[in-house]
UniProtKB/TrEMBL annotation:
UniProt source species: Sipha flava (yellow sugarcane aphid)
Top-level taxon in the UniProt lineage: Eukaryota
InterPro entries in alphabetical order: CenT-Element_Derived, DDE_SF_endonuclease_dom, Homeodomain-like_sf, HTH_CenpB_DNA-bd_dom, HTH_Psq
Domain HTH CENPB-type: 64-135
Name the record gives this protein: Tigger transposable element-derived protein 6-like
Keywords of this entry: DNA-binding, Nucleus
GO annotation, cellular component aspect: nucleus
Cell compartments where the protein resides: Nucleus
Coiled-coil residues: none
GO molecular function: DNA binding
Main location: nucleus
Length: 543
C-alpha cells in the first residue's frame, strides 16, 4: 500500500533538507524516515534553493536562520570550487575577481548575505584547492601545438619503466544507442541534457591498454533496473552497469571504478592516462599511477580519440543497422524495438571486433613509444565502406553524418548554473530510486517459451547454418544447444527431487504415522515402496 500523502509545513520541509544534508540518505530512505511519499521528498530536494530563500525571508527568528544557514548545508567553498572546475573543463578564461564575484553570488543564493569575498578569502581558497595562478589566468581553447610538442617530449619519460600491457588510456563517450540514419539531422550536435532525446542515450566508459586489451566497459544508463533487465544479471553480459538520472559520469562512479581497477592491478606496475574532466578525481592509488593529459590536447594526444572510439561506435552501429534490416521483410513487426539490453550486448560485441593492432596504432599515433613501422590505420576505412552500404539500404542519408552524430555528446555535468551545482549533490542518490526506465519503448513483450521449444528452435538453427555452410555460426548454435541441454538436466534433477520429496511425504503420512506403534515394520515397508518406485532417496531409518 502506497504511503499516504501528507501536507508538510515549511518547517517540515526545512527539517527534511537539514536531515538530508547531515545524513546524505537516499530519497527512499528519507521517505521512510519522514513517513511521506518519495515524490514529495524528490520535489523538496529539487526545490531546496527556493525553499531556503523563502525560509530565510519569512522566518522571524533571526538566530534560527543564522544557525541554519551557517550549519551543515552546502558550503560556499564547495560550490565555488565545483563551479571553478567546470569552468576550467570548458577551457574558459577565469580571473581572481571573477571567482570572488561568483562566490558572492553563491553566498546570496544560500542566504549568506553577510559573506565577504575578500582578497584574503580568495588567497585561502586558492591554497586550499591547490590552484595555480596560471590556472586562474586562463588559456586559449584551441589546440596549442607547442603544448602538444612539449607533452610528446615528456611522454617517453613518463612511460619509462612501464611495459605496453601496463600502459592504459581511459575515456567516456556518449552513445545514442537507438539512433537510426533518419534521425541524424535532429540529433547532430545535441547536448542532450533533457527532453525526449536524452532517453535515447547512454554513456560508455572505455579503458584499454597499448596491447589492445580492453577492461570491462562501464555503461551508465538512466535506470538501475530497466524492465528489459528482468531475469538477467546484466553484469554477466560483459559490462559494469551503473545509473543516474542523466546517464552521465560522476566523480563518485569514477572513484569506485578506479578503486576496483587498482585492486585488480595488484602486483603490477600500471599507468593510466586520462583527461582532466571534472568527473576524473586526482587519487593516490597503490598499484596504478594516474597521468592527466594537458587541457585541450586530447584530440591529438589521446589514443581513444584517435580512432578507437570511432571504431567501437562504427561496429556498434553496424550491429544496430543489421538488426533493423532483419525486420524489414517481417510484416508482423512495424518497428524493431531496441532496448538498453541490446545496447549492452552490442557494446560488448563491438569491443570484441576491434583489432588489437588498431589499438596499438592509435597509441603510437598519439605519441606513445613504439615501432614506427606498424603501418596505417585501415580498419576504420574498411568499416566506413560497410556502414555506408547498410545506411543506403534503409535511408538516403550521409553515412559519415550518421557515424558521428554523438561524437561530441556530453558525458558529464558541466552546467555553470549555480542552482544546478547546488542541486547536483542529490542527483546521485535519487538515481538509485529509479528502478525502471521511464520510456515505454524500453519494455519487452515477454513470450513464454518452454525449454523443449527452445531446443527445437536450436535444432532448426543448426539446419539453417548447415544449409548456409556457416561453420562459425554452427559452432555457436551447438554451444547454445549444449547450454540448453545442461539447463534441461538441471531441471530434470530438480523435478525428480521434488517428486521424491512428495513421495516421501506420502509414505510418512500413509505408512509411518498409522503404524507408529510398530515403527520398524512401517519403515521397512516404506523403504520397500521407495525401492519399488526406483527413487534415489536416502533409506529411511528409525529415529
Amino acid at each position: 500500500m502506497a504511503p499516504v500523502r501528507s501536507r508538510l509545513t515549511m518547517k517540515n520541509k526545512i527539517d527534511i533538507i537539514k536531515y538530508y544534508d547531515a545524513k546524505k540518505q537516499s530519497v527512499r530512505e528519507l521517505a521512510t524516515q519522514f513517513k511521506v511519499g518519495k515524490t514529495q521528498i524528490g520535489t523538496i530536494l529539487k526545490s531546496r534553493v527556493d525553499l531556503l530563500r523563502k525560509w530565510c525571508d519569512e522566518n522571524v527568528n533571526g538566530e534560527t536562520k543564522k544557525n541554519f544557514i551557517e550549519g551543515k548545508g552546502f558550503e560556499i567553498d564547495h560550490v565555488c570550487y565545483e563551479w571553478f572546475c567546470r569552468v576550467r573543463a570548458k577551457n574558459l578564461p577565469i580571473s581572481g575577481p571573477l571567482i570572488q564575484q561568483k562566490a558572492i553570488e553563491i553566498a546570496k543564493t544560500l542566504g549568506r548575505t553577510n559573506f565577504k569575498a575578500s582578497n584574503g578569502w580568495l588567497e585561502k581558497f586558492r591554497k586550499r584547492h591547490n590552484i595555480a595562478y596560471k590556472a586562474i589566468c586562463g588559456e586559449s581553447s584551441s589546440v596549442d601545438h607547442d603544448i602538444v610538442d612539449d607533452w610528446n617530449n615528456k611522454l617517453v619519460e613518463i612511460c619509462e619503466g612501464f611495459v605496453p600491457k601496463n600502459i592504459f588510456n581511459l575515456d567516456e563517450t556518449g552513445l545514442f544507442f537507438r539512433a537510426l540514419p533518419n534521425k541524424t539531422m535532429c540529433l547532430e550536435g545535441e547536448n542532450c541534457s533533457g527532453g525526449k532525446i536524452s532517453k535515447e542515450r547512454i554513456t560508455v566508459m572505455l579503458c584499454v591498454n597499448m596491447k589492445g586489451d580492453f577492461e570491462t566497459p562501464l555503461v551508465i544508463g538512466k535506470a538501475l533496473k530497466p524492465r528489459c533487465f528482468k531475469n538477467i544479471i546484466v553484469n554477466d553480459l560483459g559490462v559494469t552497469w551503473k545509473a543516474n538520472r542523466k546517464a552521465w559520469m560522476t566523480q563518485e562512479l569514477m572513484k569506485e571504478w578506479l578503486s576496483n581497477f587498482d585492486r585488480k592491478m595488484q602486483g603490477r606496475k600500471v599507468i593510466l592516462f586520462l583527461d582532466s574532466a571534472t568527473s576524473h578525481p586526482h587519487l593516490n592509488l597503490q598499484n596504478v599511477k594516474l597521468a592527466f593529459f594537458p587541457p585541450n590536447v586530447t584530440s591529438t594526444c589521446q589514443p581513444l580519440d584517435l580512432g578507437i572510439i570511432k571504431n567501437f561506435k562504427t561496429h556498434y552501429r553496424i550491429n544496430l543497422l543489421k538488426h533493423v534490416i532483419s525486420f524489414i521483410d517481417n510484416k508482423n513487426i512495424q518497428k524493431p524495438n531496441v532496448t538498453v539490453l541490446e545496447a549492452v550486448m552490442w557494446t560488448t560485441a563491438a569491443l570484441k571486433k576491434i583489432n588489437k593492432e588498431t589499438v596499438t596504432k592509435c597509441f603510437i599515433k598519439a605519441g606513445f613509444p613504439g615501432s614506427d613501422n606498424i603501418g596505417k590505420l585501415t580498419q576504420v576505412e574498411d568499416l566506413s565502406n560497410e556502414i555506408t552500404k547498410l545506411v543506403s539500404t534503409i535511408y538516403p542519408t550521409n553515412a559519415q553524418d550518421y557515424s558521428s552524430i554523438d561524437e561530441c555528446l556530453q558525458t558529464e555535468d558541466l552546467s555553470l548554473n549555480i542552482e544546478d551545482i547546488i542541486n547536483d549533490g542529490m542527483s546521485e542518490d535519487e538515481s538509485h530510486d529509479v528502478e525502471q526506465e521511464e520510456d515505454s519503448t524500453d519494455g519487452v513483450d515477454e513470450e513464454k517459451i518452454t525449454l523443449k521449444e527452445a531446443l527445437q528452435l536450436a535444432n532448426k538453427l543448426k539446419t539453417f547454418c548447415l544449409n548456409k555452410s556457416d561453420a562459425v555460426s554452427l559452432s555457436l548454435v551447438i554451444q547454445l544447444q549444449s547450454n540448453f541441454e545442461s539447463t534441461n538436466q538441471i531441471d530434470i534433477v530438480y523435478e525428480t527431487q521434488l517428486r521424491l520429496q512428495k513421495a516421501k511425504n506420502v509414505i510418512l503420512f500413509n505408512i509411518v504415522k498409522p503404524a507408529i506403534n510398530e515403527p520398524q515394520i512401517a519403515l521397512e515397508t516404506a523403504n520397500e515402496l521407495v525401492s519399488a518406485l526406483d527413487f534415489q532417496i536416502p533409506i529411511l531409518t528409525v529415529r
